[in-house]
Design the sequence.
């Protein structure tokens, strides 16, 4: 390994009480890469993203960010190092306005950057600018997803973790969201680790991909390689291309 | 009419004190979903710290009442805040993630411990506080009855309004307040955005305790006498106020405090003063049965 990966997950195991959700997961994300993680419902994808952020905490193995072991750090210390997450279910603060949700996203940001970053999010998602004072809980699913992405960008992360950003959204919006994710990576140099059940879009966008099954990495390879893989096609691409 | 007006003035004064205590219940419930049954004791300790504070002021020869009040206010807030912080740290935080009743039991334990602590160190007998502010004026006379407002009542209501306004501003407009609300709505998401959740919870206890301490000081000045047991009844009434207003709701706590003050004073004034506490608790029971989310609380349906 020539260059140190930005994110390295090594032999990570995670438990929920007595239930083991991750059984020694190994994977890496290099700086500037888009890496996709696909897998069936219940495979442990969300658990992995949350474990990277320290909640739940890995009971074995290590998570390293730029070589630093962050496995035991509290969540707010991990994200302070330049990690942002767009979590499963979006988790918009329902009783805060769109603007306040974005302010929350800037909790770790530099105050002097706020106006500029807000403008950037509003340019990316003009819809959010129109709904600036609307309560988060009353937004549509697509708007909430835009807000969740915008909120994550407000801290100017180096590593962006996205958990099923396409879930439950209309095909048109899904395309728009994936297009934005690609732009964030290419234009802003943000490294992206993307979890998807919707394997087609994710693997087309990604440089590399991993397949997670029952808490273990089952396959890995270049995005297009995985798309062509017979096993992946059978297991994750049935039901058409969204 | 005159009698009614007089009762109204008294009720607002009492309601202000309950409202200040109720804020602590509602904020703590909002963020960690538990009833901090030791909160009434923080109020009681605030009253005792104020008593000591006024003694120190008179020993130092501070004759000006406004100066003494401000000094004692700050001192009571600061010391009680430390109590609030320490209670959360020692009695609740270690139990976070434990079964739901654990912190409740712990709260009752803290409550008893604090009562006994004050009883042992300060004695069990009621302590007179002396009169710091006296006098007042007649608002109007009717039916051969003078409607009086005392300066003390004005101080109580003005201090309460200022603190509530300041507190509302803090929660609604500052980044600290925003982080507090974020933790209330989704603690895990708040931590994913870099909020130090433990520190925010501590801050909630500290702010609630500081407001309860002010209530303690005002109570001491208003009634002129306190003992180690005042936190129990005042605490339960303020809790009732928080439930009536809608537990978790900040304006609800203020409104609930006012209403409880009104109910208590008017019941005592028009029916019987023996049963005024019963009236308040009957309200608690009725609210819990018919409108558990309170007047300004939100029913638990929210699209997330
Ligand atoms: N909070 C939890 N408590 C207990 N078990 C959980 C919890 N969250 C997830 N699990 C279990 O862990 C496994 C992995 O879940 P998850 O990471 O959500 O999968 P995915 O995101 O791939 O659908 C599942 O078996 C799920 O039931
Ligand atoms: Mg998931």
Sequence:
């Amino acid at each position: 390994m020539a260059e140190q990966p930005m994110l390295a997950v090594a032999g990570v195991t995670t438990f929920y009480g007595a239930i083991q959700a991750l059984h020694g997961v190994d994977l890496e994300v290099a700086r500037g890469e888009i890496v996709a993680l696909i897998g069936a419902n219940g495979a442990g994808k969300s658990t992995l993203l949350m474990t990277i952020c320290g909640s739940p905490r890995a009971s074995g193995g290590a998570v390293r960010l730029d070589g630093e072991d962050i496995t035991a750090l509290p969540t707010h210390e991990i994200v302070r190092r330049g990690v942002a997450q767009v979590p499963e279910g979006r988790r918009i603060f329902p009783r805060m306005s769109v603007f306040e949700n974005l302010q929350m996203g800037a909790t770790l940001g530099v105050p002097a950057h706020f106006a500029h970053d807000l403008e950037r999010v509003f340019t990316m998602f003009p819809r959010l600018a129109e709904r600036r004072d609307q309560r988060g809980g009353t937004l549509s699913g697509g708007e909430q997803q835009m807000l969740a992405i915008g909120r994550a960008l407000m801290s100017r992360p180096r590593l962006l973790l996205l958990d099923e950003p396409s879930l439950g959204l209309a095909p048109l919006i899904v395309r728009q969201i994936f297009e934005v994710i690609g732009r964030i990576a290419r234009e802003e140099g943000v490294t992206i680790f993307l979890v998807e059940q919707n394997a087609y879009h994710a693997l087309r966008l990604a440089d590399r991909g991993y397949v997670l099954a029952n808490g273990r990495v089952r396959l890995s390879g270049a995005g297009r390689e995985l798309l062509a893989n017979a096993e992946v096609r059978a297991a994750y691409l049935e039901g058409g291309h969204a | 009419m005159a009698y009614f007006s007089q009762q109204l003035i008294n009720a607002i004064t009492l309601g202000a004190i309950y409202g200040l205590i109720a804020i602590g219940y509602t904020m703590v419930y909002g963020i960690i979903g538990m009833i901090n049954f030791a909160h009434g004791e923080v109020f009681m300790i605030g009253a005792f710290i104020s008593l000591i504070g006024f003694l120190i002021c008179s020993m130092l020869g501070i004759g000006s009442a406004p100066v003494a009040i401000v000094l004692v206010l700050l001192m009571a807030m600061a010391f009680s805040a430390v109590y609030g912080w320490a209670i959360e740290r020692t009695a609740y935080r270690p139990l976070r993630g434990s079964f739901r009743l654990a912190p409740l039991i712990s709260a009752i334990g803290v409550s008893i411990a604090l009562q006994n602590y004050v009883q042992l160190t300060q004695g069990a007998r009621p302590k007179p506080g002396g009169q710091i502010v006296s006098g007042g004026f007649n608002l109007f006379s009717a039916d051969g009855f003078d409607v009086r407002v005392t300066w003390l009542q004005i101080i109580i209501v003005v201090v309460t309004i200022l603190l509530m306004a300041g507190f509302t501003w803090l929660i609604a407009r500052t980044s600290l307040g925003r982080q507090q609300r974020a933790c209330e709505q989704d603690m895990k998401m708040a931590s994913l955005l870099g909020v130090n959740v433990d520190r925010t919870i501590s801050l909630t206890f500290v702010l609630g305790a500081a407001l309860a301490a002010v209530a303690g000081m005002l109570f001491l000045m208003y009634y002129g006498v306190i003992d180690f047991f005042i936190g129990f009844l005042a605490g339960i009434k303020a809790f009732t106020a928080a439930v009536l207003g809608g537990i978790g709701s900040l304006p609800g706590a203020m409104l609930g405090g006012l209403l409880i003050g009104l109910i208590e004073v008017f019941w005592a004034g028009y029916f019987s003063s023996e049963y005024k506490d019963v009236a308040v608790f009957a309200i608690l029971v009725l609210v819990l049965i018919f409108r558990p989310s309170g007047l300004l609380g939100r029913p638990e349906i929210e699209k997330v």
User: Anything to note?
Assistant: Strands of chain A lie at 7-16, 19-29, 34-38, 60-65, 68-69, 83-86, 159-163, 191-196, 208-213, 216-222. DSSP finds ten helices and ten strands in chain A. The pocket of magnesium ion (ligand 2) is lined by residues A 45-46, 88, 164 (CB under 6 Å). The radius of gyration of chain A is 17 Å.
